[in-house]
Design brief:
This protein has about 80 residues and is mainly alpha-helical. The protein has a domain at about 1-45. The protein is built from two helices and no strands. The protein has helices spanning about 5-40, 60-75. The longest helix has about 40 residues, at about 5-40. The relative contact order is 0.05. This is Probable oxaloacetate decarboxylase gamma chain. It catalyses: oxaloacetate + 2 Na(+)(in) + H(+) = pyruvate + 2 Na(+)(out) + CO2. Its cofactor is Na(+). Catalyzes the decarboxylation of oxaloacetate coupled to Na(+) translocation.
């Protein structure tokens, strides 16, 4: 075996390996896009309500205490 043969085989093997990786990654991209399209088609649409689910029953004393604390913090 001479060096030219070895270099040619090395380049062929490199190109074959890189081609296979490129092909497999391309197939993976198409598979993910296809599965995503199928899932988006059959998944029910979730509607967000405009009302917040957080309770707004905060007493006036707590609101006053928070307001005073924020004002003191900002004045420093």
């Amino acid at each position: 075996m001479n060096i030219t043969n070895l270099l040619e085989q090395g380049v062929e093997l490199m190109l074959l390996g890189m081609g296979m990786v490129f092909f497999i990654l391309g197939m993976l991209v198409f598979a993910i896009k296809g599965i995503s399209a199928v899932i988006q088609r059959y998944e029910p649409v979730v509607e967000h309500s405009s009302k917040s689910s957080v309770s707004t029953d905060i007493s006036e004393d707590i609101v006053t205490a928070i307001t005073v604390a924020v004002q003191r913090f900002r004045s420093k």
